Amino acid sequence: MDHTAYQQTDFAAQPIRSLANLNTPSTPQSLSRMTQNDVMSSATAPEQQQEASALPLPPPHLETNPLFRSIAASTSVYPHLHPRPLQDAPVDIKNAIVPVQPQTRFQLNGHEPTKTLDTYGAHTPAVSRPESPFRLATPVDYDGLSWPSTGTRARLDESEEEKAARVKKMAGAIQTLLECIGEDPSREGLLATPERYAKAMLFFTKGYEENLRDVVNNAVFTEDADELVIVKDIEIYSLCEHHLVPFTGKMHIGYIPNNQVIGLSKLARIAEMYSRRLQVQERLTKQVALAISEILKPQGVAVVMESTHMCMVMRGVQKSGAVTTTSCMLGKMRQAAKTREEFLNLIKR
């Protein structure tokens, strides 16, 4: 047989085997064995080493992605990238990717793992809605100053002189901005605008100086209650972190107590704390829900937010009637469709 023809046939078959590996259900043990075999064979057989060197390289933006590297290791497409088994995948909090161990998946909500779930919980479990991977690594920080921003601790602890220096620095930046748009910062109407805007921006973002522990202030009480508690139509004012323009709306918060309740005003204060930061609505909704879940350990939490974004009203697509609705459901609110429907009916959404 012609040696060149044999090599061409072998390389042509390689992508087919790789695609089959991607689509074939496998247990973590079989994935681990396959990964180890691929690595050992490429290290011992010169012919297979040559073949592995001809394998396609992933795009640069994917090569460093932990999830991509973990999945690549479970196939023969890119076994050289990440030889560890899939169940040993790294945690990637920033991208909301959290590997879940089979024996503990969904244990937070009292559900046993199902056989159809892979390591990242990608398949739909036997509940109404699957848990978000983010829920399994709650980013709640009672100090409240380190996620997702940096530098807020210095802002909180600074002296009066340092605060004055911060305002002066911000005012200088605003004066430069006014000059860049063609205005005259020295005219009467704009003379004090840079300093006024600097102070206003510090107020708009005052949530960076607040933390969950102080906001709640021990207002959690033992109570024999297990029915829905809802506070709706909480007014929200926040700044879009993409354009630094406002988005405003209303938030509706509900939870099912688990022998503990929180002062009703604290729900509104938690929403206020997270909204007074540079935000996106999706993250704001989830942060409030996760905070309540972490504080009370309730049977379920639901947060729905409706808002109008000035970044798509005053600019861009300019649709003044557009309303954005986001939700975050945890626990029984996520698992049980009837419970979720009861909450939505009570807030009339």
TrEMBL record:
Keywords: Allosteric enzyme, Folate biosynthesis, GTP-binding, Hydrolase, Nucleotide-binding. Its EC number is 3.5.4.16. Residues 172-347 form the GTP cyclohydrolase I domain. One of its GO terms (biological process) is tetrahydrofolate biosynthetic process. Residues 17-65 are annotated as: Disordered. The keyword Iron-sulfur does not apply. InterPro entries: GTP-CH-I_C/QueF, GTP-CH-I_N, GTP_CycHdrlase_I, GTP_CycHdrlase_I_CS, GTP_CycHdrlase_I_dom. Residues 20-52 have a biased composition (Polar residues). Pfam families: GTP_cyclohydroI. One of its GO terms (molecular function) is zinc ion binding. It comes from the Eukaryota. One of its GO terms (cellular component) is cytoplasm. It is an enzyme of class 3 (hydrolase). Belongs to the GTP cyclohydrolase I family. This is GTP cyclohydrolase 1. It comes from Arthrobotrys oligospora (strain ATCC 24927 / CBS 115.81 / DSM 1491). The lineage of its organism: Eukaryota, Fungi, Dikarya, Ascomycota, Pezizomycotina.
